[in-house]
Amino acid sequence: MKRSNIWILIPGLNEEKYISTVLKKVKKHTNNIIVISDGSTDATARIAKKYTDHVLSHSINLGKGAALNTGCQYAFNNLGAEAVIFMDSDDQHDPAEIDDFIDKLEQGASVVFGVRSFNEHMPLFRIIMNRLASVTIYALFGSYIPDIPSGFKALSKHAYSKIQWEAPDYAVEIEIAAKVAKYNIKYEVVPIKTIYHDFDRGVTILDTIHMIARILSWRISL
Amino acid sequence: MSIFQIVSVLFALFLMYVVSIHRRKAKLTTTEVSFWYSMWAFFIVIALFPGLLLGITQQLHFARVFDLLVVAALMVLTILVVINYFTQKENQKNLEKFVRKQAIDEQNT
Prior knowledge:
- The complex is a heterodimer of chains A (222) and B (109).
- Chain A is 41% helix and 17% strand.
- Chain A is α/β, with parallel strands linked by helices and 222 residues long.
- Chain A has a seven-stranded mixed beta sheet with strand order 3-2-1-4-6-5-7, with helices on both faces.
- The radius of gyration of chain B is 21 Å and the shape is elongated.
- The relative contact order of chain B is 0.07.
């Protein structure tokens, strides 16, 4: 797998506060960047266009899963990508770790999960929900995948074609994990840093309950 | 005539009016208009003459006509909820596909 065929996908909704910082950092490691502005009403897309020619703009907000799907389809069908790496647009991920993902992909991994260390920086509630998601997937699909809600992960084209998630929202993270476990797709994990800026953002307890209900439905349907 | 019957008839007449509004705005086909008018007309008849259903009520071993109507109403509601669920899901998928295509096409041009 050529490094030039690996693209970074950064979905975002109204991230004008962080997108510039994120893209500056990512550009130090690769120029293969696709930003998906998921119905942003602020300057996210305009700012992103200063750093990359590949900015996809959803006219309305569809959700993270749908935005990632748009990015994947564009990368694999239009740019000839062989793999993609997902990153959050709110500067929660350290782009210096992109190379770790690329190394794993080059070694033949189809899916690479970025796994945060559970330390004092991660709120207790999130640790509990995080573990609960992994345990639920293990109980239902027989594979323990740590830190499922982490948005820093990589997929090869082959893995994407097998997973083909349907979740348009945050449940995409757990659907990917469930399908990786279900289809026995070869995966690797890489340790990543835990960076939190805004504790009131991201996955809420309602999202978590919703996700667990979805896992049960996938267990029945997959 | 009991208060309950009067309220039921007024309710059905109101919904017939709603159907006629949608007919005037051409939001419903002739078949749909006929179906809903017939449905509410039937509802009025049953509300005024519940005894008409006594035979079916006994046949199905319901204690009262009211019980039969409650069960029938719940079945209708369930059907409508299921139909709405699938329609909404289909619409969501179509919307997602449309927005995605639009975003990729704009980027390619």
